[in-house]
């Protein structure tokens, strides 16, 4: 008991004696860094794609109909991350969708989405091949000051879209670049 009390009493004295020396050695703490995100490798339905997302997305099914009237489903994986909305989607186009000219299909997607953009058109469209598939990366302004950046591609009947919506300066951050560059196509 005595030893415990002595230690209890001696500790404040030792701390008080060393306080001046300790104050001289104190340095301000390094600036706080933003908490690191937990990245998830999100696998699309039927192993259609894999993409890295900075958090666990919400999975939704979106029913739609082809121009020929055949019902089909978009599989959507979305999350809000800091000032961004991040979405990955895929669909397997039904047999009545002619995919022999993929650029026409992708142009149709771009035209449809452009209707929701400020001025009804894209600021920039970059046509290229991504992972062996015809693709277009596009950027457009949205009412309210946000910007939409998206990548759409079509490999056979498999449609894949990656998109980020947010302030223009946020669309070129390392996290957004990682999201877009992480795309891998599966089956």
Report the major sheet.
7 strands, antiparallel
DSSP summary, beta strand count: 10
Shape: globular
> How are the strands ordered across the major sheet?
3-4-5-9-8-7-6
Overall number of structural domains: 1
Low-pLDDT residue intervals, each spanning 5 or more residues = 1-32
Element order: H for helix, E for strand: HEEEEEHEEEEHE
- β-strand percent reads 35-45%
> At CATH's second level, what is the architecture?
3-Layer(aba) Sandwich
Q: What is the helix content?
A: 10-25%
* CATH H level, superfamily name: Mog1/PsbP, alpha/beta/alpha sandwich
The number of helical segments is: 3
Under CATH at level 1, the class stands as Alpha Beta
Query: Which structural category fits the helices and strands?
Result: alpha+beta
Can you give the mean pLDDT?
A: 84
**If you consult CATH, what is the topology?**
Protein Transport Mog1p, Chain A
Distance between the termini: 71 Å
The whole-angstrom Rg is: 26 Å
Describe the structure.
With 187 residues, the chain is an alpha+beta fold. The chain has a single domain (40-185), classed as Protein Transport Mog1p, Chain A. The protein has helices at residues 2-25, 102-114, 174-181; strands at 40-43, 49-53, 58-65, 71-81, 84-92, 124-130, 133-141, 147-155, 158-166, 184-185. It has a seven-stranded antiparallel β-sheet with strand order 3-4-5-9-8-7-6, sandwiched between helices. Strands 1-2-10 form a three-stranded antiparallel β-sheet. A hairpin with a 2-residue loop joins strand 4 (71-81) and strand 5 (84-92). It is globular. 18% of the residues are buried.
């Amino acid at each position: 008991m005595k030893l415990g009390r002595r230690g209890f009493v001696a500790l404040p004295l030792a701390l008080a004696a060393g306080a001046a020396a300790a104050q001289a050695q104190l340095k301000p703490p390094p600036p706080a860094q933003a908490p690191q995100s937990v990245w998830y490798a999100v696998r699309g339905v039927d192993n259609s794609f894999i993409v890295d997302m900075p958090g666990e997305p919400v999975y939704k099914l979106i029913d739609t109909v082809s121009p020929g009237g055949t019902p089909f489903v978009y599989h959507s994986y979305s999350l809000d991350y800091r000032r961004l909305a991040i979405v990955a989607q895929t669909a397997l186009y039904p047999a009545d969708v002619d995919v022999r000219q993929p650029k026409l299909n992708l142009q149709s997607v771009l035209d449809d989405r452009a209707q929701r953009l400020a001025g009804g058109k894209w600021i920039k469209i970059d046509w290229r091949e991504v992972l062996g598939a015809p693709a277009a990366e596009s950027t457009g302004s949205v009412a309210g000051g946000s910007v939409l950046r998206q990548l759409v591609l079509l490999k056979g009947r498999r449609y894949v879209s990656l998109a980020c919506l947010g302030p223009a300066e946020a669309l070129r951050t390392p996290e957004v670049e990682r999201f877009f560059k992480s795309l891998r196509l599966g089956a």
